[in-house]
Automatic annotation (TrEMBL):
Keywords: Aminoacyl-tRNA synthetase, ATP-binding, Cytoplasm, Ligase, Nucleotide-binding, Protein biosynthesis
Gene behind this protein: proS
Annotated family: Belongs to the class-II aminoacyl-tRNA synthetase family. ProS type 1 subfamily.
Coiled-coil spans in chain: none
Protein name: Proline--tRNA ligase
Domain notes: Consists of three domains: the N-terminal catalytic domain, the editing domain and the C-terminal anticodon-binding domain.
Length: 580
């Protein structure tokens, strides 16, 4: 069906919307693709909906091709399944909750592991039924703390979520690998520039998980990569440990009076002003006190985290390392309850003496000597040697990661970059199968606990991500795979002849199987060209003065290149370009 701009439900805007910061948000609003209804809640207008549907189609084709079966769950869900998985509580304020007229609790689904697990439990029972992959393309609801950047982070958004159900760990690995391959095909077809990064640290036994990040300066995720191909989300970076140092001949630890030195900076200045050696912040051991609460526990437990003093504790990395336990910084009342903690001067000694678990950065290995708190106000200990004077309970990934740090694969140093998460693949294991008792009856009639994977693609976010990566000063530039139309025919003039000529050209293109947007409006050519650039269809065909001599102008939106082509055979010519 030919679309005429004279009747298309579209009004482009000359000004950027006041609340927009990133290019995709500005352009999608200005070009009339989306309109804001509430913070993080958007309507899709005709052009936007076409792009969204095309992204969905790519995702569906690849999910079907990898053997996924599409189903659709409601977004309005009862509380009970989320109570079983404990996510009614765990999700906290991020869930939209509501009550029905009888007072029953409901939620708008933020993600659907529970429903998929229950569905499989309801339909399948024999080992012969497995493996199976189910997916849906569905609207999700999350009351995000900071909805931002238009449809990039919405409170209502479209996600493709799929789940694999396998009898064995090997089966799960295979389902994971097939999803990974399907995602690579999806994002390649969408012409995205993306990286696959490791997403959880194995330190606390997390299973395989990777994120697909679209590279983008405006992205919220920081990742690092090394020259040898290593790439990881900052949360998942593992710190290479240096070799241990022999203890023989290391100087003995000495406690010093270091008045008014509660911070690393004041301490280093004091030591350098009063000693014979030069110290830097990296020579100090900073002991940060936190408390953790494993799921199901009622009490918080103290935890000491030791990091080299030139680095901060990165709370996101610490949280990822402690998962599924919750982590929080200590409050004044915690210090009051544990008087052995001498704020600003905490050392490994008092932690060990009081049975507080003490985990250290992997760089703190046997034989390394540190300046650290002496558990007494205004006192520090110098040359406190790990493995001689104190013995940590283990290591933890909590220190900040910096560009220039050695790459964990031993090749070169890390550089940092930013990205937007477009997909996430995750080996869930048996968490939900355990919660809901999802078993298959084995050949020996014994139950086999099912193991699951969960895999998400941010379908509506992708529309914005593509726009973010593919635009210029004048507007959007869609890749052909998702463009709302194949060709934008611009009638550059108001005469009846030109308009008739444009209609004929458009009809020929349509007959050749191309989708066409025809600008038949009575506007000036300047306005039409500006709108064509803004709307971003990759091929623009201008029907102008040259028509009288049998000539048209073909413009490539991405390169700006213009060529003259003969009117005769236009459909074959343009098809050749669009389908190249
Ligand atoms: P993020 O870290 O960006 O908040 P997430 O880890 O919460 O994402 P998942 O639960 O893994 O996301 O969801 C799968 C995919 O859904 C993500 O990879 C992302 O592309 C998309 N997505 C998540 N939250 C939003 C949102 N608020 N708006 C749009 N898309 C989203
Ligand atoms: Mg994620």
């Amino acid at each position: 069906m030919l679309t005429r701009m004279s009747s298309l439900f579209l009004r482009t805007l000359r000004e950027d919307p006041a609340d927009a910061e990133v290019p995709s948000h500005k352009l999608l609003v200005r070009a009339g693709y989306v309109r804001r209804v509430a913070p993080g809640v958007y309507s899709w207008l005709p052009l936007g909906l076409k792009v969204l549907r095309r992204v969905e189609a790519v995702v569906r084709e690849e999910m079907d091709a990898m053997g996924g079966q599409e189903i659709l769950f409601p977004a309005l869900l009862p509380r009970e399944p989320y109570e079983v998985s404990n996510r009614w509580t765990e999700y906290g304020p991020a869930v939209f909750r509501l009550k029905d007229r009888k007072g029953g609790d409901y939620l708008l689904g933020p993600t659907h592991e529970e429903l998929f697990t229950l569905a499989v439990k309801g339909e399948y029972s024999s080992y012969k039924d497995f493996p199976v992959v189910l997916y849906q393309v569905q609207t999700k609801y999350r009351d995000e703390e900071r909805p931002r950047a238009g449809i990039l982070r919405g409170r209502e958004f479209v996600m493709k979520d799929s789940y694999s159900f396998d009898l064995t760990d090997e089966g799960l690995s295979e389902s994971y690998r097939r999803h990974r391959d399907a995602y690579i095909r999806i994002f390649d077809r969408l012409a995205l520039d993306y990286v696959i990064v490791a997403a959880t640290s194995g330190a606390m036994g997390g299973s395989a998980s990777e994120e697909f990040l679209a590279e983008c300066e405006t992205g919220e995720d920081t990742f690092v990569r090394g020259p040898g191909g290593y790439a990881a989300n900052v949360e998942a970076v593992t710190t290479p440990a240096p070799p241990p140092v022999p203890l023989d001949g290391l100087p003995a630890a000495q406690v010093h009076h270091t008045p008014d030195t509660p911070t690393i900076e004041t301490l280093v200045d004091f030591l350098n002003a009063h000693g014979t050696r030069t110290f830097t912040a990296a020579d100090t051991l900073k002991n940060v006190m936190v408390k953790i609460k494993p799921p199901g526990a009622t009490e918080w437990e103290l935890l000491g985290v030791g990091v080299p003093g030139d680095r901060e504790v990165d709370m996101k990395r610490l949280e990822a390392s402690c998962e599924p336990a919750q982590v929080a910084l200590l409050e004044e009342s915690d210090f009051a309850r544990n008087p052995f903690l001498t704020k600003g001067y905490i050392g490994p000694g008092s932690l060990a003496a009081n049975g507080v678990r003490f985990l250290v950065d992997p760089r703190i290995v046997t034989g390394t000597a540190w300046v650290t708190g002496a558990d007494k106000v205004d006192h520090h200990v110098v040359d406190l040697v790990c493995g001689r004077d104190f013995t940590p309970d283990g290591t933890i990934e909590a220190a900040e990661v910096r560009a220039g740090d050695p790459s964990p694969d031993g090749q070169g140093v890390l550089e940092a970059a930013r990205g937007i998460e477009i997909g996430h693949i995750f080996q869930l294991g048996r968490k939900y199968a355990d919660a809901f008792g999802l078993d298959a009856l084995g050949p020996d009639s014994k139950p086999i606990r099912i193991t699951m994977g969960s895999y998400g693609v941010g379908v509506s976010r992708l529309v914005a991500v593509i726009a973010e990566q593919s635009h210029d000063e004048s507007g959007l530039i869609w890749p052909r795979s998702v463009s709302p139309y194949d060709v934008h025919v611009v009638v550059a003039g108001k005469s009846a002849e030109l308009l008739a000529g444009g209609e004929e050209v458009a009809a020929e293109l349509e007959a050749a199987g191309l989708s066409v947007l025809l600008d038949d409006r009575k506007a000036s050519p300047g306005v039409k060209f500006a709108d064509a650039e803004l709307v971003g269809i990759p091929t623009i065909l201008v029907v102008g003065r040259g028509l009288a001599e049998g000539k048209l102008e073909l413009k490539d939106r991405a390169t700006g290149e213009r060529i003259e082509i003969p009117r005769d055979g236009v459909a074959a010519h343009v098809s050749g370009i669009v389908r190249a």
